[in-house]
Design goal:
Blueprint lengths: L12 H31 L4 H4 L1 H42 L1 H7 L2 H28 L6 H28 L6 H21 L13 H5 L7 H22 L1 H7 L5 H25 L5 H20 L4 H14 L2 H10 L6 H10 L3 H13 L9 H19 L3
Helix pairs in contact: 1-3, 1-5, 1-6, 3-5, 3-7, 3-15, 3-16, 4-5, 4-7, 5-6, 5-15, 6-11, 6-14, 9-14, 9-15, 9-16, 9-17, 10-11, 11-13, 12-13, 12-14, 12-17
GO molecular function: transmembrane transporter activity
Pfam family, one: MFS_1
Main location: membrane
Length: 396
């Protein structure tokens, strides 16, 4: 463990690049859900609070699939776990075809749930796999780097959705055609992955110390799972009503607000690259606490409705949000040894927070979408406390 650790090793490069591409794929799927949120309000004539059930369908699948995906991965390995995730992802996308024909919000929610079961499976497998592809001291950097491409997917999702779905589209045909194409791409990725070999990976040193204690007594893991719940709660709520904020507060068209949402995802991607670099000189838990503090300030400014100043703050939330998900994940998996895969399942289950907060924010947004942005402040306070107290939590 002496000397400067490598980012990864040459023997892991092919699988590292493929798994990193999967981060992009679920970034597209998650942010397209926020475009659907707004589109369904128009086409299916539902309220903001009811459209928030889109996020409940997406993120709720993580609570249902987290532990089964972890059990499947532990029994059948990383490769079959990734293939299962890709198959579920593609199946959910293809279910959009009959959902569009039925013009049914509940059918769309079922399709999104199946798709998100695939996303949950992929996340359960991908995070511990990326963490294991090299020295544990650089696992934070690897996960943040891979999550940067999740940010790229987040740029593509709303841009694609705004152009294909929101631009002069008052029906569900564009939704059907887009998800049919997505299902085809994911099916092709699954076929390619059949021919990729995953090298044997080993967990970093000190796992014997971790194995001496059960997961429930690993304070840094337990607190990471709680922090991840609040983190994705803030993410789900912020993203779900971004386009509504652009329309209701700023007077933008849905399409233009969607493009600004895509711009905010560019800031998220930049934030992850910047964060990955900063972690070489600043401890990840310290950077996490600072970024959480900045987002408390951003949310308060957004809620004030100060015109473009508040809208820029809304954009900047994603910049400071950038490192939170991957950093909380990697900090929670530190020094867990054989418990790593099981721990990943529980942290992934915390993503259900992203399904609970949007309907709650929607109840406020029905009356004042700006005031709804006070709620994520609670989440960022929890994340700040996790980052600030991490050294004490991680002591053996």
């Amino acid at each position: 463990m002496s000397g400067k650790p490598n980012f990864t090793e040459r023997k892991y490069l092919t699988i590292f690049l493929f798994v990193t591409s999967l981060f992009l794929c679920w970034g597209v799927a998650l942010t397209l859900g926020d475009v659907l949120n707004r589109h369904f309000q128009h086409v299916l004539h539902i309220s903001k609070s009811r459209s928030g059930l889109v996020q409940l369908s997406l993120f709720g699948a993580y609570a249902v699939m987290g532990i089964p995906a972890g059990i499947f991965m532990k029994r059948f390995g990383y490769k079959r776990g990734i293939l299962l995730g890709l198959v579920l992802y593609a199946s959910g996308a293809f279910l959009f075809i009959p959902a569009a024909e039925a013009v049914s919000f509940n059918f769309f929610r079922l399709a999104l749930f199946v798709l998100a079961c695939g996303l949950a499976t992929l996340e359960t497998v991908a995070h511990p796999l990326i963490a294991a592809l090299g020295d544990q001291r650089t696992s934070d950097q690897r996960i943040n780097f891979a999550q940067s491409f999740n940010g790229l997917g987040g740029v593509i999702g709303p841009a694609l959705g705004s152009y294909v779905i929101l631009k002069e589209s008052n029906d569900l045909l564009a939704v059907r055609d887009l998800y049919m194409a997505i299902g085809g791409v994911i099916s092709l990725l699954a076929l390619i992955f059949l021919f990729i070999r995953i090298p044997k990976v080993q967990y970093a040193a000190h796992e014997d110390l971790a194995e001496a204690k059960p997961l429930i007594r690993q304070k840094h893991f337990v607190c990471a799972a709680i922090a991840q719940f609040f983190n994705t709660a803030a993410q789900g709520g912020t993203w779900a009503y971004f386009i509504n904020y652009g329309h209701d507060v700023m007077g933008l068209s849905d399409e233009k607000a969607g493009y600004f949402f895509s711009l905010s995802m560019i800031l998220l991607m930049i934030g992850r690259f910047v964060g990955t670099a900063l972690m070489r000189v600043i401890a990840p838990y310290k950077l996490l606490a600072v970024f959480a503090g900045m987002n408390i300030l951003m949310c308060i400014i957004v809620a004030q409705q100060w015109g473009w100043m508040s809208f820029v703050a809304l954009l900047m939330i994603n910049f400071f949000f950038s490192i939170m998900f991957p950093t909380i994940f990697s900090l929670g998996l530190k020094n867990l040894g054989k418990h790593t895969q099981q721990a990943s399942s529980f942290i992934v289950m915390g993503v259900v927070g992203g399904g609970i907060f949007p309907p709650l924010m929607g109840l406020i947004a029905n009356h004042n979408v700006a005031a709804a942005y006070y709620l994520p402040v609670i989440c960022y306070i929890v994340i700040l406390l996790f980052g600030y107290n991490y050294p004490g939590l991680a002591k053996k």
